[in-house]
Amino acid sequence: MTAIKKFVAIGPESTGKSTLCSDLAFQKNTLWCKEYAREFLVTNGNDYTFNDLLTIAQGQIALENATTEKAEDEKKEMIFIDTDMYVMKVWCEFVFDKCHPYILNQIAERKYDGYFLCHPDLPWENDPLREYPDQETRDRLFKFYEELLSIQSTPWCHIRGEHVERISRANEFILSVSEQS
Predict the structure, then answer these.
(1) CB-based burial of residue 58 (10 Å sphere; 0-12 exposed, 13-18 middle, 19+ buried)?
(2) Contact criterion met (CB below 8 Å) for 126 and 119
(3) Cβ atoms < 10 Å from Cβ of 18
(4) Three-state SS annotation for 117-144
(5) Which residues make Cβ contacts (< 8 Å) with residue 73, sequence separation at least 6?
(6) 115, 34, 163, 8: CA torsion to nearest 10
(7) Which of 16, 19, 170, 1 is nearest to 71 (CA)?
(8) For 1, 57, 66, 123, which has the most beta carbons within 10 A of its beta carbon?
(9) In terms of Cα–Cα distance, which of 90, 22, 18, 105 is closest to 58?
């Protein structure tokens, strides 16, 4: 069996990452890996520390590995991942001005087939776990993600617009990546 293709959704809060991954997984009859941070914050509260971000990063990797193993067992061709270590890097650096070496090492070691960079052009959805509702901060965070993607070699695409546009653009990108492999 060929390796499972992995596509990751990244971007600021409330940009449709979970919805995109869930909908694409449903459409393609496959699995998606949820964001571990949500589970952690629901259980432990929003008052997190720098070391908590390391725990969240490790939990995200474990969840991604478990999703990948399940997809392999079920003979799926691809999976969608809501959040990776780039998100953890931005979160660490934005909040604490430093990043855990574990996160940086995982960025260097882990390989993906493509990234969906989700724009902050959707209306903000209030959620007690979210921290940055103002558009200026959301735009600034988006630029951090865009800069990170522009200096690495994995293909990526912009995901913007309303739901139908986002799904359509993601599917076009998946097809183009699949044709190149």
Answers:
(1) middle
(2) no
(3) 18
(4) EECCCCCCCCCCCCCCCCHHHHHHHHHH
(5) none
(6) 0
(7) 1
(8) 57
(9) 105
| ∠ CA 131-145-94, rounded to 5° | 45
Burial class (CB within 10 angstroms; exposed 0-12, middle 13-18, buried 19+) of 112: middle
Q: Which residue in 3, 27, 7 sits closest to 17, CA to CA?
A: 7
Using an 8 Å Cβ cutoff, are 31 and 24 in contact? Answer: no
Distance CA 83, CA 26 (A): 18
